[in-house]
Amino acid sequence: MAAEPKYQRRKEDRPREIADAAFETFAEKGYAAARIDDVAKRAGVSKGLTYLYYKTKEDLFKAVVRNVVVRRVDALLDDVESTELSSEEFIRGPLLTFMRRVPRSPIAIVIRLLISEGPRHPDLVDYYYENVVARGLDAIERFVERGVRRGEFKPEARDIQPQLFLAPMMLSMIWRLVFTERPLDTDRLMQTQVDMLLAQLKA
Amino acid sequence: MAAEPKYQRRKEDRPREIADAAFETFAEKGYAAARIDDVAKRAGVSKGLTYLYYKTKEDLFKAVVRNVVVRRVDALLDDVESTELSSEEFIRGPLLTFMRRVPRSPIAIVIRLLISEGPRHPDLVDYYYENVVARGLDAIERFVERGVRRGEFKPEARDIQPQLFLAPMMLSMIWRLVFTERPLDTDRLMQTQVDMLLAQLKA
DNA sequence: ATACTTACTGACCTGTCAGTCAGTAAGTTG
DNA sequence: CAACTTACTGACTGACAGGTCAGTAAGTAT
């Protein structure tokens, strides 16, 4: 009976496994109420190992946010940008789909964490702003600019704040986070916003 | 030298004083990181006294939210409703002002607390929904309805979701909470939204 | 004054949890 | 197989903070 090993040594995979477990734990309990013991148990690992890869709970938290962010946002933005549709088709298609997805995605969880813990982690907020918000806003602005150059949008379209596209998405996100089971037709919300914006933008 | 008293007994005022101090402390640190000792010190009171008026930290938290909510919302909604302006004037005037104020008001702080602590206090979330959100949405719906009956808005206006009015306000709130010092022209944001909505609503 | 009630204090108790580290065993090298 | 490296474990510690309560003194009644 070759006593099966108590654990495997997997130096490579541990950090990500621990970070994933931490993400789930933070998502459920929030930062303060999440125990490192829980994270470790979830990752199928001892508490001590967590501290081998992440010096402190705060480090782990930052790693989690960065991790989720880079893994998701790049993909999302990339496939939204590479398209040859007309501006209106693009807005009604890929962009709308993107906006619908975000409130249910892990990004929403990260936002919640940033809202509650942000003030005590200003560098994280900066990181998030530069890697998500700024890039997203920029993408929208470049898209509008392209529409204007193509003659699909009128020149005044340039004055529209990109945040106007995201406002209903934001509301939907918060709504879902807080009033989980209260109904809200978020699709219609974003649909209408897009209709209104197109009415303003189109040449 | 009539040794001045160490404290005064003020049974009536203590609860509110403590709740106010708690609100400030929660606002600064969040629920978990706020210490009852801090709250007590801020209220100029001993830790023990806090526990005379509020059985637990959680009780205190709930009292704080309810307290802030009832004290603010009634006033806000009331003076928005009692007006004899035309629908458009009303939207461009009092409603816009209201929307501009909220993100800087204590309501924003309460929202932050609800976002982070909501999941563990479902009754608080219900309370907040019924006393703030539902009433606000309802007010908007009744307002639109009135506009339609007066012939100022077209009948399809009834299909507009009231949340569309609030979306940019929501975004402004979150923006301020997270990216405190990053600029965002929130006034213009809401102004444009109102313009777009009126374009859709007007007969 | 004196006796009495109770708002209020603050030292203490206790459970919890981030962080440590001596020890163990998985895997590797010769 | 033995000697060695190091990924990994889990019992332990120290600090912190929620909650308690015996004692104190402010105010009141007689």
Primary descriptors:
203 residues; 70% helix; homodimer; mainly alpha; 0% strand
Can you tell me about this structure?
The structure is a homodimer of 203-residue chains. With 203 residues, chain A is mostly helical. Chain A has 9 helices and no strands. The first copy, chain A, has helices spanning 14-29, 36-43, 47-53, 57-81, 87-101, 106-117, 122-149, 163-178, 186-201. In chain A, helix 1 packs across helix 2 (36-43), helix 2 packs across helix 3 (47-53) and helix 5 packs antiparallel against helix 9 (186-201). The longest helix of chain A is centred in the C-terminal third of the chain and has 28 residues, at 122-149. The termini of chain A are far apart. The first copy, chain A, binds a DNA duplex (30 and 30 nucleotides) through residues 5-11, 14, 35-37, 45-49, 51-52, 55-57.
- The oligomeric state of the chains shown is homodimer
Show unreliable segments of chain A: none
Measured as a percent range, the helix fraction of chain A is: over 70%
Q: Which structural class should the secondary elements of chain A be placed in?
A: mainly alpha
Mean pLDDT of chain A: 92
H/E series of chain A, N to C? Answer: HHHHHHHHH
Gross morphology of chain A is elongated
Summarize it:
By secondary structure, the first copy, chain A, is mainly alpha-helical. The first copy, chain A, has nine helices and no strands. The longest helix of chain A is centred in the last third of the chain and has 28 residues, at 122-149.
Which SSEs are present, and which pair or pack?
The structure is a homodimer of 203-residue chains.
Chain A: H1 14-29, H2 36-43, H3 47-53, H4 57-81, H5 87-101, H6 106-117, H7 122-149, H8 163-178, H9 186-201
The first copy, chain A, binds a DNA duplex (30 and 30 nucleotides) through residues 5-11, 14, 35-37, 45-49, 51-52, 55-57.
